[in-house]
Q: What sequence folds into this?
């Protein structure tokens, strides 16, 4: 299994540009999550999904959108990039059929908005 | 609002020392508490503590959960330079989401 994969690894955007961060998992996990981590801070939840076709807001959803058309993929969309969205973005997945909250993280995408 | 507070925020020790990292939490409906280790990449899972498993041990690392006092500790004995990382205490919510503390940055000097 590849686990959780994310692309791209790095990206620089100009203010107002848009982009999609890709996330895929091949573990057949039903739950998927997007977090952002600012320097010196813990991870904050942006959006999450409990299964294909179902998404919900997390702690910091403003400026982002998600979709979950398949179990495997959970892309994160930035429509109008702002400097405040400069961060490292982590995607994660979890199998809720297993007791507990352990999440498996992707390698992250480092985004800079100038 | 659910909250996780870690202390200290940073810690410098020498190889061979024993360290204790602290985590206190205020949550409305406890489900689980997790510890992750983060180096210059994604967090990696260490332990999960629940009502039915309040003490975990793996090699030099161990963790306990005190549900009455609402805290957890992560203990690392005989520290090595490879233990240098940010250690994240994480509350596992009822929706499966995770609420992260800010982390404790541990630096182990040779």
A:
């Amino acid at each position: 299994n590849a686990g959780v994969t994310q692309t791209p690894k790095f990206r620089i955007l100009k203010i107002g540009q848009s982009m999609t961060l890709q996330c895929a998992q091949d573990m057949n996990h039903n739950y998927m999550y997007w977090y952002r981590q600012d320097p010196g801070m813990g991870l904050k939840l942006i959006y999450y999904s409990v299964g294909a076709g179902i998404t919900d807001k997390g702690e910091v959803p403003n400026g982002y959108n998600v979709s979950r058309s398949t179990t495997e993929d959970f892309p994160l969309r930035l429509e109008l990039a702002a400097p405040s969205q400069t961060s490292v973005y982590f995607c994660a997945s979890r199998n809720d059929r297993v007791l507990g909250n352990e999440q498996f993280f992707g390698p992250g995408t480092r985004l800079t908005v100038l | 609002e659910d909250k996780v507070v870690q202390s200290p925020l940073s810690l410098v020790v020498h190889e061979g020392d024993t360290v204790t990292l602290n985590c206190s939490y205020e949550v409305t409906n406890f489900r689980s508490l997790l510890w992750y280790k983060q180096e210059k990449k994604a967090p990696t899972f260490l332990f999960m503590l629940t009502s039915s498993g309040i003490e975990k041990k793996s090699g030099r690392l161990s963790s306990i959960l005190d549900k009455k006092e609402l805290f957890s500790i992560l203990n690392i004995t005989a520290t090595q330079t490879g233990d240098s990382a940010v250690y994240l205490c994480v509350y596992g919510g009822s929706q499966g989401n995770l609420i992260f503390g800010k982390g404790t940055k541990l630096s182990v000097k040779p």
The mean pLDDT of chain A is 91. The two ends of chain A are 36 Å apart (CA to CA). Chain A touches chain B through 27 residues (CB under 8 Å). DSSP finds no helices and eleven strands in chain A.
